[in-house]
Amino acid sequence: MKRLIEIILCSTLILCLAGCGSSVPAVESSETSIVAQTTGTSESESESTVVTETEASTENVTGSSTLVVYFSATGTTKGKAEYIAEITGADLYEITAAVPYTDEDRDWTDSDSRCSIEQNDPSARPEISSEAVSLDDYTTVYIGYPIWFGQEPRIMDTFVESCDFEGITVIPFCTSGSSGIGQSAQNLASNAGSGNWLEGKRFAGDASEEEIKEWVDSIMVEMVLTINGTEVPVIWEDNDSVKELARIADNGLTIEMSMYGGFEQVGPIGQSVTSNDEQTTTVPGDIMLYSGDQIVIFYGSNTWAYTSLGKIDLPEQEITDLLSNGDVKISIAVR
Ligand SMILES: Cc1cc2nc3c(=O)[nH]c(=O)nc-3n(C[C@H](O)[C@H](O)[C@H](O)COP(=O)(O)O)c2cc1C
Question: Alpha-carbon distance 69 to 51, whole Å?
């Protein structure tokens, strides 16, 4: 009976992998020994921030509050992980196996192969060779892996059991020939025993960057605005500028604002954000992106080309009291 199930699984795999034009052994192995590196920009732009092997560190060297952890035997998940790290400005950490998985090990047609044996044994915990990473400074951890026989590779269980995810939002993702994420994310969450685990997402090997970005953008985050230390309710726009601002704010964003023109507070974001300016006559409470890299919060009215970011949801008098009595310091955070 067991043999029959294996034959059915293997046949399904052959069909699935052929169907998406990918074959497991055809992809170069990525089992090298990167331990941790920083990203945030494309490879060419980020040369100076990449931690090389000799200076590899398990410390949070960038100050980013997001970490992308991944295991990838043949490079597919690695590519997705690198892209997620690039668009979220996250650090990147690769889980590597102390005993690397060879082509023979990964032979899913052989019921005696290492992968077959490990995946048939829920208690198997392959050893990790990458240096342990400290999650202390991270609030969000993406965790990526390939699907092996419908499950997470056991080495992922080794990893999650070695970590304390308390207070951390954990976002699982996986790649596969055709299988869904199945129970793998729940298994990881239950083996981890801590952390706020969000619903996971499966990507095909050829998933586009657009698909990945859409998913990252769709993950619900709550963005909080404080003015001089007081949290104020905001109705944020659902647009690309706000999504980008949320990614910047994930690393903490504090802006010294200046009163200007008797109707607004204005201050620099410190970097450019996608804009879609439209000629607008503002009303008190409007939060606008000005010139692509400045935030303006209105307690009066002005007519100019802005991109709307949101609106403070308070009575006009409270907005005036908050903003019209001298320069303010605002902070935007994600939780
Ligand atoms: C041992 C093994 C088992 C696999 N089992 C499945 C499976 O059950 N379903 C599936 O759709 N793909 C399966 N695959 C294909 C991988 O999930 C897929 O190729 C994945 O994208 C590889 O990611 P990686 O390159 O990051 O290792 C399996 C591959 C291997 C090596």
Answer: 15
Answer whether 306 contacts ligand 1 (Cβ < 6 A): no
**What is the strand order of the sheet 329-334 is part of?**
230-232, 223-227, 329-334, 253-256
> What CATH number is associated with residue 104?
3.40.50.360
In the prediction, which pLDDT does 33 show?
25
Pocket test for ligand 1, best of 108, 155, 183, 212 (most atoms within 8 A of CB): 108
pLDDT at residue number 119: 98
Q: What's the domain count of the chain?
A: 2
**What distance in Å separates the CA atoms of residue 258 and residue 260, rounded to the nearest whole number?**
6
What pTM does this model have? Answer: 0.65
**Ligand 1 centre distance from Cα of residue 147 (Å):** 5
Per residue in 299-312, pLDDT tens?
A: 999 999 999 999 99
**Same domain? 67 vs 14:** yes
Q: Which atom of ligand 1 is nearest to the CA of 176?
A: 17
Q: Any residues with CB less than 8 A from the CB of 2 and at least 6 apart, and which?
A: none
CB count within 10 Å of CB 304 equals 15
Do both 243 and 99 map to the same domain? no
In a shared domain, residues 251 and 302: yes
The first and second tokens of residue 330, run together, are: 């605002």
Say yes or no: CB of residue 175 within 6 Å of ligand 1: yes
Same domain, 112 and 202: yes
pLDDT in tens, 164-201: 999 888 999 999 999 999 999 999 999 999 998 988 99
Which stretch of DSSP H or E encloses residue 243? helix 240-249
State whether the beta carbon of 77 lies less than 6 angstroms from ligand 1. Answer: yes
SS3 235: strand
| Per-residue pLDDT tens digits for 19-56 | 333 322 222 223 322 223 333 333 333 322 233 222 33
Quote the domain boundaries for residue 109: 2-218
Residue 130 Rama label (left phi>0; alpha psi -120 to 50; beta): beta
Pairing of strands 223-227, 329-334: antiparallel
